[in-house]
Amino acid sequence: DADVTQTPRNRITKTGKRIMLECSQTKGHDRMYWYRQDPGLGLRLIYYSFDVKDINKGEISDGYSVSRQAQAKFSLSLESAIPNQTALYFCATARDSSYNEQFFGPGTRLTVL
Amino acid sequence: SQKIEQNSEALNIQEGKTATLTCNYTNYSPAYLQWYRQDPGRGPVFLLLIRENEKEKRKERLKVTFDTTLKQSLFHITASQPADSATYLCAPLYNNNDMRFGAGTRLTVKP
To answer: Testing the interface with B: which of A57, A102, A103 to mutate, by most B Cβ within 10 A?
Structure first.
């Protein structure tokens, strides 16, 4: 089984809808991250969490919110989706040290019409 | 503002040659820098980390250098193979808590 899983893998929705993307991990890592990837722009950090009670905004948090339900689960919500939120979204985890590598999930492709 | 640039969007080389990818950053001084590989439709996979006090790091056919004066990292793949074809991302540490990723260089190794 994959260590970092994301659901759904693909989602098409309409402008104004609320969407939740979910991430689960079995690696036992404390740190979890949400990124979006757009062609030519690379990965951009949306939110990150160092433990259940510690959530921080990243580079592009406007229009997004997150919830850390447990050490293993980190959800990303789009309260009112808009077309420019169409992107590939990745969840990642890391051990409790900034030096450690990040482990990425398979990604969720979101299309907002 | 901080900026990360990877030298080219795409790089094509012949099998057996050495591929060299460049990552330049401006307006900050990362304590370390990581390199990742990303295949189409998949999440990035960690390859190497190099710290600011290290000039060079090697792992099998991979070599990374880190020049804090030039604010540049070079990523080399020697004896390249078609299986090395992928997008390679550099990620300098942005602050103590997170990294920032470059847009990536898509490498194609032709047989």
So the answer is: A102
* Interface mutation target, options B98, B100, B105, B106, chain A, most CBs of A under 10 Å: B98
Mean pLDDT, consecutive 10-residue stretches, chain B (111 aa), reads 81 96 89 93 94 92 94 96 97 78 94 94
Using the Cβ of A54 and the Cβ atoms of chain B, whether some distance falls under 8 Å is answered with: no
% of chain B with per-residue pLDDT over 90: 71
**Ordered per-residue pLDDT tens for chain A, 113 residues:** 579 999 999 999 999 999 999 999 999 999 999 999 998 788 999 999 999 999 999 989 999 999 999 999 999 999 999 999 999 999 999 987 767 789 999 999 999 99
Report the distance separating Cα A36 and Cα A45, nearest Å: 7
**Rounded alpha-carbon distances, angstroms, from residue B64 to A16, A70, B60, B82:** 45, 37, 11, 20
Q: Note whether A58 contacts B32, CB cutoff 8 Å.
A: no
| CB-based contact A77:A63 (threshold 8 Å) | no
Longest CA–CA separation in chain A, Å: 39
Distance (Å, rounded) from C-alpha A11 to C-alpha A110? 5
- The dihedral built from the CA positions of residue B45, B49, B55 and B59, taken in this order, carries a sign that is negative
